[in-house]
Amino acid sequence: MLRWILGGREAQFSAEKSSASCIGEEQPKNWFTELQVLKGHFDIVRFLVQIDDFRFASAGDDGLVLVWDIESGERLQELRGHSQQVTAMTTFTCNHELASHTLLITASSDRSLSLWDPDTGHRVQTVSDLQSSVKCLLVLERLGVWVSGGEELCVWNKDFELQCQRRNHSDTGMTALIELPKNCLAAAMDKDILIYRLTVSSSSSSSLAEIRCLSDHQDRIRDLINVSDRLFASGSHAGELILWDAVDWNVLAYEHILWEESQSPIQSEIRLTAPKPSEMSIQHLSTNGKLILAAVGSGLYVYSVMTKTVVAYRKVAHDSNVLHTALLSDSELMSCSEDGSVRMWEIQDLPLPAEPASPGFFGMWNFGRSNKQTCAASKKDSDVPNLRTLELTGDLIGHSGAVQMFLSFGENGLVTCSADHLLILWKDGERQSRLRSLALFQKLEENGGL
Fold first, then answer.
1. CA-closest candidate to residue 114, choices 81, 156, 149, 68
2. May I ask the CATH class of domain 37-446?
3. What is the reported pTM?
4. Is the dihedral angle over the CA atoms 350, 352, 353, 357 positive or is it negative?
5. Largest CB tally within 10 Å, which of 4, 382, 393, 414?
6. Residue 147 pairs with which residues in a beta bridge?
7. Nearest to 145, CA basis, from 156, 160, 137, 159
């Protein structure tokens, strides 16, 4: 099948050389049996953003922003204007009396911000000569403003007019922004999370006030996500996962992934030697409000928000670092990696053990710490209910470079982007066959062929 051999990609990681799971071509739970390669970029493609139910935009190191049709794979617009790589991209919805219109905001290493109309391909607004590159963007639809973060934190109105800004007291810059209740923002900067309160007056002027600094992480924060209206989570380079109260900003749970020495020969997934820092690093977090999926090194960990425990994990899910994840449901998830693959997983119950496992089996987790100073001891096996496993159900091999991220359109398919400069549309082969048959039937009917 084409999807296994596209681009002459050899099996870089054979079963003998890799400790990650392998799966053959018989993949009954993998419905992505057709693919379409999209060309247009000439450097690493890092960002995918959904515009509406049928369109998405891609951007990366070539400075191009391309707009695509998810059904046909047609390139609809080519947005040129940035002279260096795109560093962040998001959508901005302008609401009018009769309709709403979705625009694109992009940031670049050329120290500029641009507002694009994906319908026409025109650049509506641009801001140049910023003090530094913008690393993250956040749209606050309710307040009609958007925020850019880098070495400065800036608030802009819908007309691209600067409302207020604050200079960071660190050279590292902000790497992630999320919205919190009561007009607050959380910004990740090195090891800290800064809480700001945004005030927007009736005259459309704005002000930012730093009201809290959360310093519970021991290493650089890699990702920051909203879990629900009252919860958010952060993950660090040292494998720390912290669950926070979004209203009073207290630590609700602290998990630290530790690779301690195994005390049982059957514990094959627990490493006997100290890991490299990259193997402990949380690269990406995703959530569906009930579970948090953490990409840690080349592994995947599923954390329950309700029980505040790890409910499933796979120490080696890919042959290299996992870059992006998504929870498709309470039992299905997806991941992509530097190894060039996109993998589908299912959370399944573990088989009953023949004999009780050693207490060291869960020695790599510290559960239920309420704050940085108080850390509960690792629980015994009997105290960790319903631990499950991640079973590989699909392996999408088509890219020859690191897959940076993916974007799901449900039954309309999946799009992936990679360091090989390509995008790939993955489709449900059976559904596509039905759609082609229906289109042929309608065409024959229109031409009087029936």
1. 81
2. mainly beta
3. 0.84
4. positive
5. 414
6. 138, 155
7. 156
